[in-house]
Amino acid sequence: MIQAELADGRVLEFPDGTDPAVIQATVKKMLGGNRQLPEARALPDEPTYAERVDAFNERARGFIEPALTVGSGMVAPVIGGLRGLGTALTSGAKEGARVSEQTTEALTYTPRTQTGQANLQAIGEKLQPIGEAFSEVEQAMGEYVLDVTGSPELATAAHTLPTAILEAVGLASLKSMRQGTRLLDQNGQPTKALREQLSKQGGLVYENLTPEVKAMIPERADPKLLPSPSAEKGKAIENILIEQIKRGGTDDGLAGLKVERGRLVGDPIATETIRQGFEPGFVQSVKQANPQTNTAMQRMLNIMRRVKGDERLGLDMRPSDVVGDSLKQRIEFIRDQADQARIKMNKLSRQVLHGKQINPDPVVDTLYQALDDLDVDIVEGANGVPSPIYKGSMISKDRTSQRVINDAIDLLSEGKPGEFPDALRFHKLKRQLDALIDFRKKSAGGLTDSGRNVLKKLRATLNNSIRDVSPEYARVNDIMSQSLTALDDFQAASGRSIDIFGDNANSAIGTASRKLMSNYQSRQNFANALTQINDVAANLGGTFNTDVKTLAMFANGLDNRFGAVAKTSFQGGIEAATTRAVNQGVGSASLQAAAEQLGKKADKLRGVNDFNAFESLDKLLKRK
């Protein structure tokens, strides 16, 4: 139908498809005269009857579909449960559960129109506080029943009761209204929501989580019964905290928590230990220590307690001595393995290497190349022995390197002229070079890098030639090589003033272990050497269950809380200097003294003192 409005407000209607010229002529004829009329303008089309019916149905479904969802949600679980029960009796519980879930899902109506979905979402948002309240009720009921009865079965029944009530009134179907909060992005990296919850609820950092815990984090948190993003994230983080604790996490945020019967609860003993002045990370490391490390910590705590009661005992014992004991056990084990390997290698050299001829050319080539790298010319001397010309070379004034290179050439030239050496000869040459390197390294003049590098290159070539002759020799040689390297690196990191094999090495090594917790430039070298000692000892079959790094951390934590045992140490010197300044009452030291006095009074009122600190830490260590 075409409508046209005239200037006087009247509306004329014409059939669809009417020619505009016909409409104009008709209007003129109806009004009479041939005057020009204003151009007729088209009015908006009114909806057809069918369109008005569709719009009514859309609005009606917007109200009816949520009702169908709630209604079917009341009936579907009952029918699904009955079908599942019947299937379980004949085909087993797993198949029964599958049938129950399929039936419930099939019978639960889901809104199909946008209006219905929007209205159902609005209903869910209005009822969200109810769902959260029921969630808290079901958790509280489950915990109460478990505490009173000790029965997991009854606790489970009590926990699911509120959910059953919601299902009875048809709200269970709202579970599918939305997806859970996203925890990992498309690249598997933590979202802001996950980081916020880790920081808020546990003070955790995602990168510090164990690989196993990272692997268990879902892409999205499981939706609650009713949409509740905060509750979803909280539950997901709780699972992460529980798993991180189970996996031995030492995060600061875990210190005040523990896992009991699969639930995350507070840890009052740990909390009291923190209140007594110990750092949370220290406390959590203590909680996660294995039994052997825990026993060593108890020894250290007892030493500190005794020293605090009698300062003179600090001359004979320190908590860090226990760290040194643990390290010395590994060092002595590695040294024993090296000694056994040396004995076996000498035996193999006589039995296997004797008479096995080896081409000396690679060794000679190595010598010439090493000297060429130093710009050292070579001329043929007596009996064909090479004679180096050091003038104008890079070591023209390096007498130490010149002497050691000459010694090496003399060793290589020994033997019968024109006769190929055997593998035994190479083995002896290698040991002679080892002795030469070691002697020059310890002598007053030392051994410069140039000379050492020439000897090491020669030794490596000799060693590779022997390895090709005997695989068993190669295996034993590897044991000795890695043992001596680990011991030498640890000696260097500890300091040449310490004899790591001495009678009182445990005390000196224990003191050196404080580097791990310091800002010394040598800290990283010591940490690497310590890791190497641990790894080599384990690779050689040693079983040492104490965690040396945790023990070093424990010794440092005791010093931080109770004061350094060694009064002449760096930390002890700072403490003594501070005390002198306070006693003299100079400048800001007077203010510091006043602040310390106020702090001591506050601690006294709160029950924070050395006695309670010892007791709380002792209780934490001895807790099963």
Describe the SSE topology.
Elements: E1 2-5, E2 11-14, H1 20-31, E3 41-42, H2 49-91, H3 93-107, H4 114-149, H5 152-168, H6 192-202, H7 211-216, H8 229-246, E4 257-260, E5 263-266, H9 268-275, H10 280-288, H11 291-309, H12 320-353, H13 361-373, E6 377-380, E7 386-389, H14 399-413, H15 423-442, H16 449-469, H17 471-494, H18 505-512, H19 523-539, H20 548-562, H21 570-584, H22 588-606, H23 610-622
Antiparallel strand pairs: 1-2, 1-3, 4-5, 6-7
Helix pairs in contact: 2-3, 2-4, 4-5, 6-8, 9-23, 11-12, 11-20, 11-23, 12-15, 12-17, 12-18, 12-19, 12-20, 13-16, 14-15, 14-16, 15-16, 16-17, 17-19, 21-22
Written overview of the protein:
The chain is mainly α. It has 5 domains: 2-42, no CATH class; 49-177, no CATH class; 192-266, no CATH class; 291-317 and 512-622, no CATH class; 332-494, no CATH class. The chain has helices at residues 20-31, 49-91, 93-107, 114-149, 152-168, 192-202, 211-216, 229-246, 268-275, 280-288, 291-309, 320-353, 361-373, 399-413, 423-442, 449-469, 471-494, 505-512, 523-539, 548-562, 570-584, 588-606, 610-622, and strands at residues 2-5, 11-14, 41-42, 257-260, 263-266, 377-380, 386-389. The strands form 3 sheets. It has a 3-stranded antiparallel β-sheet, with no helix packed on it. Strands 4-5 form a two-stranded antiparallel ribbon. A two-stranded antiparallel sheet has the order 6-7. β1 (2-5) and β2 (11-14) form a beta hairpin. The termini are far apart. Mean pLDDT is 75; it is low at 33-43, 165-178, 224-232 and 567-584.
